[in-house]
Amino acid sequence: MLKDKINLSEEEVQEFAEEIKKVQKHYPKRINVDPEGIEQGLAKLVLTIIELIRKLMEKEAIRRIESGTISEEEIEKIGEAFLKLEEKMEELKDVFALKDEDLNLDLGPLGNLM
Which of 5, 72, 78, 107 is at 20 to 30 A from 21, Cα to Cα? Predict the structure, then answer.
């Protein structure tokens, strides 16, 4: 019996069961899973991660440009890559009906992502 394995009195088991019943009242009996909502949520997560990585890469690129460690040709390639990424991000945000503010994250002491 489970009660014997976790060493609880009958009264403690009853209290626990009552607490579970109270918590269950606040949750739906069934979860309504909307496939479009799942797709949009996943797209939001992925695009937010991509945006975070893009911002970090952009800061690193600026640091390298300012320090003079990359050539003019490399600067041009980096610029083109960032433009293409931005175009693709806008396209995907349109597909999933997301706005820039939907991809915002509170990064604590660093502030908001966007």
Answer: 5
